[in-house]
Write a structure and sequence with these properties.
Elements lengths: L4 E8 L4 H16 L3 E11 L5 H15 L4 H8 L2 E5 L5 H18 L5 E5 L6 H10 L9 E5 L7 H14 L5 E3 L7 H12 L1 H6 L5 E9 L8 H5 L2 H19 L8 H13 L9 H4 E4 L1 E4 L22 E6 L11 E6 L6 E8 L13 E5 L8 E3 L2 E2 L22 H11 L8 H19 L8 E3 L6 H7 L9
Helix pairs in contact: 1-2, 1-13, 2-3, 5-6, 6-14, 10-11, 10-14, 11-14
Bound molecules: 6-O-phosphono-beta-D-glucopyranose.
C-alpha cells in the first residue's frame, strides 16, 4: 500500500495548460492511489481573479478529459484546491500566499512541507524564487522544494543567470529541474536493465559498440506553440535536454547503488567529456531542417503556422553526431535526431554492436532497441524482434524493472519530489556542459542562412540526415 505524503503545493501558472494537462491529472492519480489523501492542498496562482469554486470547476473539467471516474471522487479531490490571484512582481501577493499556505497547512495538517511549482513562463522563474525567499514563504519545520519546468535558459549565459538568481533563494539540493523524459518508465528502467544484464553492460563500450542512435520523432507539428518555438527550435527544445539526458542514462557509468549523488556525478562526468565542436566542424556534424507542407499540399508548412514568421529560419528537425572523450566511449558516434511532422511518433534508442561482440557470445552486429514509448510490452527489441522471441538471451527486463506498471512521467516525478529523490532531475552541472555544447551549434547556425523549408511533412526529414551517417559507413536503424 502506498505511503501517504503530505505537502502544500503552490503552483505558479495554476490556470495554465501544463497544470491542466499534466499536473492535475497526475495529482489525481496520486489521490486515487492513496499517495495523496488527507494531508495535502493545492494553491493555484495566476493573474486572473478566480474564485476557489471556479478554479475547482476548471480542474474537474480537465480531469474529465482523461478519466471516466465518478464525479464524486473528482469533487472530493477538488476540495483540496484553492486559488490565489497573484502578480509575480508584487511582494504583498507573496505575503497573502504565505498566509494562505499556513492556514491550509493547519487545516490539512500538511507537515509544513511546501512544493513550489513553476509552471509559468521561464522569464518569471528567477523573480518568483527570489520573492519566495525574501518574503519568507519557506517554512522552518518542513521541506521547501522548488520545481522548475524547462526551458532552463536559452543558452549558457541565460542559464547561468537564471541559476544564479535561483541559487540565491534555494540550495541546489532543494531544486528539482524537470526533464519529463527522466520520468518515463523506460528511461528509469535503463539502470536496472544495465545492472541486471551483465553481458549487455560488458558490451556497452567502444570495443563492442559501433554506434548508438537516439531518435525522438514526432508526427505533430508545433500546433499552438509557434510563438514559443520561434524562440527555441528543436535544438533547444529537445536536444539540449531530453536527448542529452537519454544519452546520459545509457552511456554514463552505471553506479552500483541508487545513490543520487553518485548517479549525477557519473552523468556530469560524461557530459563534461563531450567532444566540443569547433565552429567549422558544426556543419559536418549537425544538420537542420524545417517542415514544409505534405505530399498532397494539405498540411501547413512551419512558416504558415500561427505566430511563426513567414521567413522563419527556426529548425524543426535536427540530426547530429555527438562524441565523448572518455576511455569508454571515445570513437563511438552517438547519432541523434529529433523533428516535428515526421512520419510517425517514435522515441527510441538503437544500440548497434560491432562484430567483436561475438567474443561475449552475442551475435555479431546485433542491434538492441529500447523503445521509450512502450507498445504492447515490446519495449526491448533485438534486431527488430521482441527480446523474448529473439533467440538471444543477453538482455531482458529484470524483475525489479517498473515496466508494465504504467505510471505517467509526471506522476512518477511528483512522487520523487514528495519523497526528496533527485535522481530523475537535472542538476546544474549537467546543464552547464550541455548548454555549452549546444551554444556552438546554435551560434554557427545563426550566422548562416539555411535553405528552408527542406522536408515534407510526413517524411523522415531532410536527406542530409541520411548522408550524415552514410559518411561514416552507418545508417539509421529506424528508417
Ligand atoms: C517537450 C517539448 O519537452 O517534449 C515538445 O517542448 C515535445 O515540443 C515534447 O512535443 C515531446 O514529449 P513526449 O513525451 O510527447 O515525447
Amino acid at each position: 500500500m502506498a505511503t501517504e505524503k503530505s505537502a502544500i503545493f503552490i503552483i505558479f501558472g495554476g490556470s495554465g495548460d501544463l497544470a491542466h494537462r499534466k499536473l492535475y491529472p497526475s495529482l489525481f492519480r496520486l489521490y486515487k492511489s492513496g499517495i495523496l489523501k488527507n494531508h495535502f492542498a493545492v494553491i493555484g496562482t495566476a493573474r486572473r481573479p478566480w474564485s476557489d469554486d471556479y478554479f475547482r470547476e476548471t480542474v474537474i473539467t480537465s480531469l474529465k478529459d482523461y478519466f471516466d471516474d465518478d464525479e464524486t471522487i473528482m469533487e472530493e479531490f477538488s476540495k483540496h484546491f484553492f486559488y490565489q490571484s497573484h502578480d509575480v512582481n508584487d511582494s504583498e501577493h507573496y505575503i497573502a500566499l504565505k498566509n494562505l499556505a499556513a492556514k491550509l497547512d493547519d487545516q490539512f495538517e500538511a507537515g509544513h512541507n511546501r512544493v513550489y511549482y513553476m509552471a509559468i513562463a521561464p522569464r518569471f522563474f528567477g523573480t518568483v524564487a527570489e520573492h519566495l525567499n525574501s518574503e519568507g514563504l519557506k517554512t522552518k519545520d518542513g521541506y521547501n522544494r522548488l520545481v522548475i519546468e524547462k526551458p532552463f535558459g536559452r543558452d549558457l549565459d541565460s542559464a547561468c543567470e537564471l541559476n544564479g538568481n535561483i541559487a540565491k533563494a534555494f540550495p541546489e539540493d532543494d531544486i528539482y529541474r524537470i526533464d519529463h523524459y527522466l520520468g518515463k518508465e523506460m528511461i528509469q528502467d535503463i539502470p536496472h536493465i544495465r545492472s541486471n544484464n551483465d553481458k549487455f553492460e560488458e558490451a556497452l563500450n567502444n570495443k563492442y559498440v559501433s554506434n548508438i542512435q537516439v531518435t525522438l520523432a514526432e508526427s505533430l507539428g508545433v500546433e499552438d506553440r509557434g510563438g514559443y518555438y520561434e524562440t527555441s527550435g528543436v535544438l533547444r527544445d529537445m536536444v539540449q535536454n531530453h536527448i542529452m539526458q537519454i544519452i546520459g542514462t545509457i552511456a554514463s557509468d552505471n553506479p552500483e547503488s541508487d545513490d543520487a549523488k553518485l548517479i549525477h556525478q557519473n552523468k556530469s562526468d560524461l557530459f563534461s567529456s563531450l567532444k566540443e565542436l569547433a565552429p567549422d566542424e558544426v556543419d559536418s556534424n549537425f544538420i537542420r531542417g524545417q517542415y514544409d507542407t505534405d505530399k498532397l499540399g494539405d498540411a501547413k508548412a512551419y512558416r504558415q503556422e500561427d505566430n511563426v514568421a513567414e521567413d522563419s529560419n527556426i529548425e524543426t528537425f535536427v540530426a547530429g553526431k555527438i562524441e565523448f572523450n572518455t576511455k569508454r566511449w571515445s570513437g563511438v558516434p552517438f547519432y541523434v535526431r529529433s523533428g516535428k511532422r515526421l512520419q510517425e511518433k517514435s522515441s527510441r534508442i538503437d544500440i548497434v554492436f560491432n562484430e567483436k561482440v561475438e567474443e561475449l557470445g552475442i551475435r555479431p552486429n546485433t542491434v538492441v532497441t529500447l523503445l521509450i514509448e512502450k507498445e504492447d510490452g515490446n519495449s526491448i527489441l533485438i534486431n527488430g524482434i521482441n527480446y523474448k522471441d529473439a533467440g538471444q538471451d543477453f538482455i531482458k527486463f529484470p524483475e525489479e524493472a517498473k515496466f508494465d506498471k504504467a505510471r505517467e512521467a509526471y506522476e512518477s516525478l511528483i512522487i520523487d519530489i514528495l519523497s526528496g529523490n533527485r535522481v530523475h532531475f537535472t542538476l546544474w552541472d549537467e546543464l552547464r556542459s550541455t548548454w555549452k555544447y549546444i551554444d556552438t551549434i546554435r551560434e554557427s547556425w545563426d550566422a548562416q542562412q539555411p535553405d528552408f523549408p527542406n522536408y515534407l511533412s510526413g517524411s523522415m526529414g531532410p536527406d542530409a540526415a541520411e548522408m550524415l551517417l552514410e559518411r561514416n559507413g552507418h545508417s539509421w536503424i529506424w528508417d
